[in-house]
Amino acid sequence: MALLEAVRVPREIASGRRASGTGRHGAGFWAVAVAFAVAMAFSTVPAPLFPLYTARDGFSTFTVTAVFAAYAVGVVVSLLLAGHVSDRLGRKRILIPALGLEVVAALLFLTGTSLPLLLAARFITGLGVGMITATATAHLHELHAAHRPGASGTRFEVVSTAANIGGLGLGTLVAGFLAEFVTAPLRTPYAIFLLLLVAAIAAVAVSPETVRRAGAYRYRPQRVSIGRGPAYPAAATGAFAAFSVFGFFTSVAPGFVAGTLQHPSRFLAGLIVFAVFGASAAAQTLTTRWTARSRTVSGLTAQAAGLLTLVTGMHVASLPVFLSGGMLAGIGAGVLFKASLGTVAAHATPADRGAALAGLFLIAYVALAVSALAIGMASRFAGVVTVMTWFAAALLALLTVVALLSHRSRRPPQP
Fold first, then answer.
1. What sections of the protein cross the membrane (predicted)?
2. What pLDDT, on a 0 to 100 scale, did the predictor assign at position 39?
3. Any idea of the CA torsion for 385, 391, 392, 394, to the nearest 10 degrees?
């Protein structure tokens, strides 16, 4: 997700002094953006391939969601242990090893399809993504500031959102296309992304560093605190609700399309997830100048309407209705999470902002894992349509709580 509010600019850039070699910073900006997009795209490559794993090895819905949850657990662990380290050690010193973890994961995917191997590969993918997301976003912000001193941050925000959320959707689209039209569908997508990840490492390696190391560094895990005050519960609950939707589409939705809706095309599965994330990225970009309240109201409305449409499409077994609901829910989730980010950043003190945002992302990725596992476990006892109906009802109740908390946080304090 967009991290504009979370970025802390180093002193040599924040002071406004025009850095030397701005041409290199401009080239580095696009090199890091491409590397960021490749890493995020790789993280969603398995999504349209899950039906193939199910057909090959007999994986249940619960097994698929467990594999997906391993990724979310990896992200959470990485956020806690290494999400903040690049502020002291440098962006490239974290980005390159993080991309190296993605390379290791790709090699594991190429090795076989056993469940322990898939769990390990997804966990390692999550470790890398947790390090990359905040670090790459901060690096892009600093390279943009060095290349265009005094310019607005519009280019940075559009590009970082496209690389992050757009990359998530692009990975499913490319993997679905390759799985549909080339041989060895469970190997070819990973082989191609392995080459792209190696190229991404090379691109980051030749990009300028934007953080100067100052003195000795004593490592400590990230201090996580979502913050205090009436605004934080609404932001945290909104983030949880938003990422719960993304958890469904990157774990269970491709299997539902292939099975219940009887559309086995891997390219179609990838296209559906791409449409959801693409709509979310576009909505986040278009609402950049909106107020936090407008984002919250619009996000809540769109996500609620999308969930109702999505469940309707599942009950009537209509792919167009299902897809429309998914895109609308994705738009709402993206805007709602952007509002949560803005709220936390605005209310936190500068000294606590990084920790508060880390806490928000921790809650979001916990939601990613919990939602996927909850759907998977419930599907062992009921059909996926019934499970999603109850899941949507729970999310609608959660959105109601967000609305009430948001309204309460805007009320003036009573004497």
1. 27-47, 59-82, 94-111, 117-138, 158-178, 190-211, 232-253, 265-283, 304-323, 329-348, 355-375, 381-405
2. 96
3. 150
